[in-house]
Structures are given as structure tokens and as C-alpha cells.
Amino acid sequence: MGEEEKSLNFIEHIIEDDLRAEYVKDQLRFRFPPEPNGYLHIGHASSICLNFGLGIKYNAPVNLRFDDTNPAKEEKEYVDAIKKDIKWLGFDWDTECYASDYFQQLYDWAVVLIQEGKAYVDSQTSEEIADQKGTPTEPGRESPYRNRSIEENLSLFEGMKNGDFKEGDHVLRAKIDMASSNMLMRDPVMYRVLHKAHHRTNTDWCIYPMYDWTHGESDYIEQVSHSLCTLEFLPHRELYNWFLDQLVSENRLRPKQREFARRNLSHTVVSKRKLLQLVENNIVSGWDDPRMPTISGLRRRGYTPESIRNFADTIGIAKRDNVVDVSLLEFHVREHLNKIAPRVMAVLNPLKVIITNYEEGKEEWLDAENNPEDEKSGTRKVPFSRELYIEQEDFREQANRKFFRLKLGGEVRLKNGYIIKAESCTKDEDGNVVEVQCTYDPKSKSGSGTEESLRKVKGTLHWVSSSHAIAAEVRLYDRLFTDATPDGHKDKEFMDFVNPNSLQKITGHMEPSLKDAKPGDRFQFQRLGYFNVDLDSTPEHLVFNRTVTLRDTWAKIEQKT
Ligand code: ATP
Ligand code: MG
């Protein structure tokens, strides 16, 4: 086995085997087939990266196919959002397709099946049909309508199409085998009557094809060579093949369904249906709430397309369903933002510092490096003055030798600035420190080249000049769920695990260079984490989202509890 072949995933092995056996490279074609009943989530990103990644690897077209056969749940808004998200992730489809474009063809083929005695109209209620399904160990029973004449079936099916019947009066079923060990082969429903307008075909149709009767046939129409879906469709493969057996003509390529494992992410749910519940119950502000595991939520939160693609590539594809820890996703966004995000200083929990030996009214504009990871990023100026803010957590009256931040009698360097020493502090009635009086060493300015500027002190703190600082809203996010697998409990609903403290809004104090920050701009707030400007932000009222902290604190918290 060559080096390259060793690193292939199992789907790529299947394709390589097929290329050796039956297909030529030009016949390869893939598709990504979302149902437009919600926004794409991080699980979909795995499928997108897989299918579009194969397209790039084999230089093969990838269709975007909307699986829009259920007018009750589908909307144009979702179609548009799905297209936007795929493009944002960095992929391009060959053809934009809709299962609804094939309604006429599917209907015509269904008529052929009826004519060949392979499909029939069943006039029982859905309860009766379910009742006859049998169990995995017991065969099902045949419907009393199973042996209707072809003429009667044709005329009833036409009546269904023409709107002569109410919902539930009749369904069309494939005539396969009520004793099959695969329950899906026990005369599956192909069509049901639905008097609902469709977002594309409007009221042209009042019968709609079921998933199994639509998916493989759409693959066949589009000549998709490998139809990759998640594992829950494994038992459907037999039916997928049965339908194709009835239709495939010799000179046309026969699609293959192959399955891979669904990707789940810890501390969240990846199911459009469940995410919709969060939206509808106002647990979140919408599909793009920065706490949502949707692509649009991650985008708004400050994630980059690269970080999501790298995450998907790292976890790869698997043959068994599993839960990937969200900290891995966070690792990837941290890694990318470390390279690209400009560094700035912001204080979120301010404590006033007075530099008593610094002249009142004086200000200095100090040079600050924008990004040490990126030489081309240059420098900016930050103002220094007699009154500053530091973080409350960065000061203690007394602390042991391991506390490298500011304590009475101790020294720290202010990032890009001077070395200061804490001399005294003032407290309020409750004993909380409200101000620290410090002195500074005027010769210690960073980058000034003096002996004092090179003097090493253990701690470096971020800070802002209080009179120059701009106030901004900062949104701090925590996990949306308190449990690692909120939908993995038999006795509880996933909604029972919603974290009531997943959003905290505070006011932060920013260095003035941030005044022109625009929605989407990403920064590292030094020593605090990565933040981006939220869509709600305006020049008068800046709003920042915390994308991710600098270090993973969650794993530690979990170990303790
Ligand atoms: P949901 O339950 O969220 O609606 P779905 O599978 O019904 O998911 P579709 O819109 O039908 O959603 O999915 C489009 C494609 O994305 C399918 O091929 C599906 O298998 C794949 N997909 C969906 N969720 C995941 C996931 N968690 N991991 C990997 N692939 C997924
Ligand atoms: Mg679905």
C-alpha cells in the first residue's frame, strides 16, 4: 500500500475500488442534499466537507440538492440560508437542484410501477397500515387493497394527483414483500396526499413523494455516482436499490448509496428539529444566535470558515456514531485566530489605578505591536495617562509568591508601557478595593532600549487609559447546555439541560483604536480571549462577542465537579 493510499478514508477507498472496477473518473459525481427545514449546523459541515472535499480531490462536480418533498416544514428562507452558509464555508456547487423539479418524472415512473403491478393504492388509514407492519421478528400482513386491478390503481392514483381526495384517504405503496426481514421493504409508502402549498411548486401538486422514493431517483436523474448519507440510512439501502432496479436503463450510471457516521458535538444538539425548538421557545435569539451550533451562529460568534473546515478534517469520517468534544472545535478556532487576529487591550472588570508620580493631564501614545504572529501586521498607538484601568482579578493586597500579578509592594509591567509598583489601595465600606495607587519607573518604557526597559519583572498586565477608553457591550457566552449529551438521556428531555447562564452581558472598556471596529471584525483581547464585533453593533454602541477564551477552562471545571 502506497503512502498516499494509507491515509485515505474508507469512503475514498470505496471510490478507488470503484475506479479500478467499474467507473471511469469522469463519471464521479457527488451531491450534498439538505432538506430546507432549518439552518445548517456543525454536523452538516462534516457532510459538506466530505462531499465537496471529494469533488475537489477527484475534480468531480458536486450538486447542491434541496430535498424539498415536505411542504409542511420547508421554506425559502432556509434555502437561502443554506446557500449562504455553504459559500461562506468556501465551497461551490456545480448545479443547484431541487427534488421538486423531479415531481413530474417521479410521478411518471410511479405510473410505470403501477402498470407493471409493482405499486398499488392503499385506502386504509395510517393506523391500519402501521398495525399490519409486523415486527422485526414477525412478518407483516398484506393490505386488503394489495391486489387491486392495475386499472383501478391507475385511476385512483390519478384522482389523488388531481385533488379528488382528502389527506389520508389513500396512499400509494410499492408492492414488495410484507414478510421481508427488513421492515422498510414491507410495501413502503411512496406517495401521500398533502393539500399544502410548496415553496416552489406552489399548488401544482397535492401528492408528495416520500424520501425513499425520491432520493435514489434524484441521484439517478442527476447521475450521482456516490450518494453518501449518514448511518441511519443503512437499512434504507435495500429499498434504495430496489427502486433503482425498477428503473435503471443499461446505458445510464447506477448511483450507489454508502453510509458514514453522524457527527455529534458535546454540550449541544445537532438536529434541525431540536434547534428549531430552541428558536421557537426563545431560548436563543434566532438560528444565528452565537450560542447555536449552526454555521450561521458560529459565524456570528466569530468562527472562521478555516477553523470549521480544519475541525471537520481533523475528526474525519467514521463508521460509528460518536460525540466529538466541543473543546476540539474551540481548539481549531483559537489556532486560526491566533494567526490572524490583531491584539488589542480591553478591560472587562475594571479596577482604577492611579500613577501618583505621573503628571496630571499628561498623555503619551505608546507603540503597540498588532500581532506578534504576523510580521506584516505592524503597530498602533495606545494612550497612556495617570489614570488607568486594570482587571480586578489582577490585583491583590497580599498574595503568595506564585501570584505574578499586582500586589502591594510588588511590581508588574504594563503591556507596551511601563513597570509600575503598587504602593497603597483604597477600599469601599464593604472592604472591596476600589483604587490602587502606584508609582511608575519613567525609564522602563517598553521598547525604549534603556537598561530599565529590559528589566524583567514576572507579570505583564493589560490595561487601558480610563479617560481614553471607550465603553462597549461585551457578550460572554457559556455552553448552551449543562450536560455533555443533552439528548442522550432516556428519562429527560434535552430542554431540561438548557444552561440558564449561557449569556452574560457586561460593559467593557476598550482601547480607543477599537472605535471604528465593524461587525465581523475579529480581535484578541490580550490575556482574555478572542472576540468579534456582533451584528448588533453600531458606531454609537459597540457590541462584542467572546468567541472563545484563550485557554480551555471547561475541561478543568468538569474534572472538579
Ligand atoms: P437534521 O436531523 O438536523 O434535520 P438531517 O440528516 O435530517 O439532519 P438533512 O438536511 O437531511 O438533515 O442533511 C443533509 C445531509 O447532511 C445528509 O446527507 C445528512 O446525512 C448529513 N448530515 C446531517 N446531520 C449530520 C451530522 N450530524 N453529521 C454528519 N452528517 C450529517
Ligand atoms: Mg431530515
Structure description:
With 561 residues, this protein is an alpha/beta fold. The protein is 27% helix and 23% strand. The chain has 14 helices and 29 strands. The chain is elongated. The structure holds adenosine-5'-triphosphate and magnesium ion (MG). The site of adenosine-5'-triphosphate (ATP) has 16 residues, from α3, β8 and α10.
Portion of residues within helices: 25-40%
* Rg of Cα set: 31 Å
Distinct ligands, ions and cofactors found in the model: adenosine-5'-triphosphate, magnesium ion
- Tally of DSSP helical segments: 14
- Provide mean pLDDT, rounded: 95
Low-confidence stretches are none
Q: What structural class is derived from the secondary structure elements?
A: alpha/beta
Strand content: 15-25%
Distance between the termini: 47 Å
Sheet with the most strands?
7 strands, mixed
Count the E strands: 29
> Could you say which overall geometry the principal axes of the C-alpha atoms support?
elongated
What's the arrangement of strands in the largest beta sheet?
12-27-28-29-25-26-13
